[in-house]
Amino acid sequence: MNTLEFKYLIKNADYKTKYEPIIDSKNDSIYGYEALSKFEIDQNLISTEEIFRKLHHNNRLFFELEKRNKQLQIDNYDNDKKLFLNFDADIVNTTSQKNYWELFLKSCKKDIVIEITENGSDDEKSTKIMHGFSSWLQNKGIDSALDDFAQDGSMFSFFLMNRSKYIKIDKSFLGQIKKNSAYIEYLKGLLRTIRLNNQKSIIEGVETYSDYLMVKEFNADYMQGYYFSDLMIIK
Q1: Beta-carbon contacts of residue 26 (< 8 Å; ≥ 6 apart)
Q2: DSSP letters along 40-52, please?
């Protein structure tokens, strides 16, 4: 697929948002929702993953797409719970981009949490951009969550961890525990560290009833996953 075909597909796709619930582990109430982009596109042409992978090579198009996505995610949300929004640091990098997002988030910043997502690169330039984004959020008084902690290929950073109010523990952690129970001690230590830092933990990947029971025992603050799919909202 050439660049023109890709741009046409991006601009003419049907966009929706899936709101995935984040559950309070203590009382099973809904704490908030994570907004996830849903693209109604012929999967024989391009997948959602390929869209974002290609967009990293076209910052202007990526920025324009995410402006539309985030506007839809805010406009379609009529809940009084916290709203978690995924942001890639690459689209909050230039002065004009930062000015746009500051104005966009100004009226709702008390009700949202920005999830800092990684583009899969661990080079020095990407690290600098992510650190700058994290500091920018903190300076603007916007709560952030470090997404996909411990995911394969993710970058561990004390800088990002220390500036995040929420630590989202990737679903791969539960997967590893099922293969090797010794990893339970890693998770317990991580959760204890998060509590000592006065941060909040969110365990992702709760897909079965046994996952749910296991996470309840860990005393994490929140949990998230397809086990709670009946509570999802799509708009």
Answers
A1: none
A2: E--TTT--HHHHH
List CB contacts of 169: < 8 A, sequence separation 6 or more: 149, 150, 187, 190, 201, 202, 203, 204, 220
Q: Which residues contact 49 (CB under 8 A, 6 or more apart)?
A: none
Distances (CA, A) of 125 to 67, 130, 177, 195: 23, 9, 34, 31
Pair 215, 196: CB distance under 8 Å: no
SS3 61: helix
Cα(121)–Cα(63) distance, rounded to whole angstroms? 18
As a dihedral over the C-alpha atoms of residue 101, residue 105, residue 51, residue 36, rounded to 10 degrees, the angle is 170
pLDDT 10s per residue in the chain (235 long)? Answer: 566 666 776 777 778 899 999 999 999 999 999 999 887 766 555 556 667 777 777 888 889 889 989 999 999 999 999 999 999 999 999 999 999 999 999 999 999 999 998 654 556 778 888 999 999 999 999 999 999 888 877 767 889 999 999 999 999 999 999 999 999 999 999 999 999 999 999 999 999 999 999 999 998 999 999 999 999 998 8
Minimal CA–CA distance to 123: which of 144, 163, 153, 91? Answer: 153
- The pTM of this model reads 0.91
